[in-house]
Amino acid sequence: MIELKTEPELEVMRRAGRIVAGLLEHLAGAVRAGLKTRQLDEASAAYLRQAGATPAFLGYRGFPATVCVSVNEEVVHGIPGNRILREGDLVSLDAGAILDGWYADAAVTVAVGAVSKDARRLMDATRQALEDGIRQAVIGNRLSDISHAVQQRVEAQGFGIVRDFVGHGIGRALHEDPPIPNFGVPHAGPRLKAGMVLAIEPMVTLGSHEVQLQADGWTAITKDRSLAAHFEHTVAVTDHGPEVLTARCE
Ligand code: MG
């Protein structure tokens, strides 16, 4: 069942969303060559504490950190640790917060210094695919209109759209119904209604869409070791169109 959020509930989710947006902006600004990825986790934990929010990922099914840090061929769910970031790396940061029992979830991919032209194109395509998906999050559309728009944008540029991980509903839990694949035919699945809140999150590769799990049981990498990018927003379907709850502060 897809939960519809009431206006007061959405108001709390907006506050949670703003915290996640601020957190990601803070972390993206901290990314530089020479930084250990665990320092991003430390910065994330401190930021959330100061904001009065609870990290959504720490302890989730045993995940050991407050932020996922996935570098280069790592697609999602990278565990921050002793890895040192280097000039030219692509770093995907995925974070969630809980405020008064309500969740928000978002991700960005950032470049460490100068990156290859391909890496830049990959990041741009992933961000655009997310925007295309968000544009479809309107009342009366069906869920797969989002999926289809994302896939179209990614594949038109010759990139791979990951299938093994998908977006999701979000609210009182990190992962609610419905699952939101980043591929599929249009005009299928449930109709979108006001009060649905969706975490839309294309994961895109420079090569094949196939991924595999690392020995740590969490980190997903591209099977062909091609670069990956990941952008995500928590989006509410409203009477006034899609509302991005995890947008940066205006
Ligand atoms: Mg998510």
Overview of the molecule:
The chain has 250 residues and is of the alpha+beta class. It has a single domain (7-249), classed as Alpha-Beta Complex (Creatine Amidinohydrolase). 29% of the residues lie in helices and 26% in strands. It is built from four helices and 15 strands. The strands form four sheets. A five-stranded antiparallel sheet has the order 8-7-9-14-15. Strands 1, 2, 4 and 5 form a four-stranded antiparallel sheet that branches. Strand 11 (211-213) and strand 12 (220-222) form a beta hairpin. Helix 1 (7-30) packs antiparallel against helix 2 (37-51). The longest helix has 24 residues, at 7-30. The relative contact order is 0.19. The model has no long low-confidence stretch (mean pLDDT 97). The protein binds magnesium ion (MG). Magnesium ion (MG) binds at residues 105, 168, 199, 201, 232.
